[in-house]
Amino acid sequence: MKKINMVIYPIIYIIGLLILLCTSNNQYEWMQEMDSTIVQLPEDSSANTAIGMTILTLILVIMQIVRFKFARSHLEKSTVIILALLAIIVWAIKFS
User: Are 64 and 37 in contact (CB under 8 A)?
Assistant: First the structure.
């Protein structure tokens, strides 16, 4: 069971981080891809994407806290802290 967890946790974390990186913070961003002359995008009044990405970031950080609790070596604990901080930094840069 521990070997399965050692594989599943990083996969879930990587998928979550990729979702954070690939999700745009403006739902109208696709318009610039269609017409490069559009300089100002319409205002995105619903903050649904930001709320969803905040929840995803919290899930990723909580996962790392659980991994930290069960980590045995100092290297593994340091890695878990760095990965949690990475998720927070990516969220802060993209959605704040």
Answer: no
pLDDT tens sequence across 22-47: 887 666 666 666 666 766 666 666 66
User: What is the Cα–Cα distance from 83 to 59, expressed in whole angstroms?
Assistant: 13
Q: Please give the Cα distance from 71 to 73 (Å, whole number).
A: 6
Identify the CA nearest to 81 among candidates 65, 92, 95, 93: 65
Query: Which amino acid is residue 59, in one-letter code?
Result: I
Evaluated on CA atoms 64, 70, 76, 78, the torsion sign reads positive
**One-character DSSP codes across 5-69:** HHHHHHHHHHHHHHHHHHS-SSTTTHHHHH-TT--SPPP----HHHHHHHHHHHHHHHHHHHHHH
